[in-house]
Design goal:
The protein is of the alpha/beta class. It has 11 helices and 8 strands. The protein folds into 2 domains: about 160 residues, NAD(P)-binding Rossmann-like Domain (Rossmann fold), CATH 3.40.50.720; about 90 residues, N-(1-d-carboxylethyl)-l-norvaline Dehydrogenase, domain 2, CATH 1.10.1040.10. Helices cover about 50% and strands about 10% of the residues. The protein is elongated. The relative contact order is 0.08. The protein binds NADP nicotinamide-adenine-dinucleotide phosphate.
Length: about 300
């Protein structure tokens, strides 16, 4: 029979380095799962209610690392992670570093090599959901790097809830997913604010545009799935809409925006890809073909 104390014995001590909004959410989830938690932040006074809930706050990175077996870094960038870990030339034999800081695939690979040279068991991670999701079924966190390190921390990281997945031994893979998904987010946000600016310039109230704009947003899940299938198959039927038609449509947006003095830089960049596709003879094909055109131009 497993007793409560046996269960507690399995709960590894966790250290969270970084108490921005995400670091605090992570620490909170580990506390909720009853892990012993130690937290550190460069600037003191960011722990909120974590100490009242049982977290140990320390102003020394060395003490923080010493207290944990699973060391979570969640800082602004990889440079900050490196500078922080360098403050703790600890014995890492019984510790693993899980870096949940956002970054680029090349940075993750470099960080993994850096950690390995110091005998640090390193796992890179990418958090794909916002702070309120952490510790709930809707959280999604991807991990990549040494599988042995993932297996060592998997049970502990389950405290973050939702979906946790090891996406490959290449430490850059989790970041690669993150930047690709951020690409969708960044360009969508730009498209949304651009549309509001254009509509305002034409005298359309934002809330009236929103009534129709949410319908456009609703088309995206099906389109993403369909594009994935087409890109995977290398076949881009133009039965629904074509690149030639998109060339015409994007020209209308650019002309209207430019007439109102609204920056159309992102649209002209998108149009140049469409124009290249048309010049290469892909005008009659579907829009998913543009991914292949972009990839070839990379
Ligand atoms: N917030 C979200 O919803 C979300 C979602 C997914 C992923 N993420 C990722 O999670 C990471 C943390 O995000 P966040 O929202 O918590 O806040 P953030 O503003 O990205 O990062 C703030 C943290 O970084 C620390 N920091 C900055 N420069 C530092 C340095 N040179 N040395 C040591 N620490 C340094 C800050 O310490 P000080 O307090 O001393 O400035 C603070 O703890 C980021 O990589 C972010 O992209 C966040």
């Amino acid at each position: 029979m497993i007793t409560l104390s046996d269960e507690n014995a399995r709960l590894l001590p966790v250290t969270v380095l970084g108490l921005g909004p995400m670091g605090r959410a992570l620490a909170s989830a580990f506390l909720k799962a009853r892990h012993p938690v130690t937290v550190w932040n460069r600037t003191p006074g960011k722990a909120g209610d974590l100490p009242d809930r049982g977290a140990v706050v320390t102003d020394s990175v060395q003490d923080a690392v010493r207290a944990g077996q699973v060391i979570i870094a969640c800082l602004i960038d990889y440079e900050a992670v490196r500078a922080t870990i360098e403050q703790s030339p600890e014995d890492w034999k019984s510790r693993q570093l899980v870096n949940l800081t956002s970054g680029e695939p090349a940075q993750a690979r470099q960080m993994s090599r850096w950690a390995s040279a110091r005998g640090i068991g390193y796992l890179d991670g990418a958090i794909l959901t916002p702070t309120p999701a952490i510790g709930t079924p809707s959280a999604t966190v991807l991990y990549s790097g040494a599988r042995g390190v993932y297996e060592a921390v998997q049970e502990t990281m389950a405290a973050l809830g939702g979906t946790a997945m090891h996406v490959g031994d290449d430490p850059g893979q989790a970041s690669a997913y993150e930047v690709a998904l951020l690409d969708i987010f960044a360009t969508s946000v730009n498209g949304i604010v651009h549309a509001f600016a254009l509509a305002s310039a034409e005298g359309i109230e934002p809330e009236r545009l929103a009534t129709f704009a949410t319908g456009i947003g609703g088309l995206l899940p099906e389109m993403i799935t369909r594009f994935a299938q087409q890109i995977q198959a290398g076949q881009y039927p133009g039965d629904r809409s074509t690149i030639a038609s998109a060339a015409s449509g994007i020209t209308h947006i650019i002309n209207t925006a430019t007439a109102h003095g609204i920056d159309a830089g992102m649209l002209t960049a998108a149009k140049s890809i469409i124009d290249r596709a048309v010049a290469d003879g892909y005008g009659p094909e579907g829009l998913a073909r543009l991914a292949a055109v972009l990839h070839k131009s990379g």
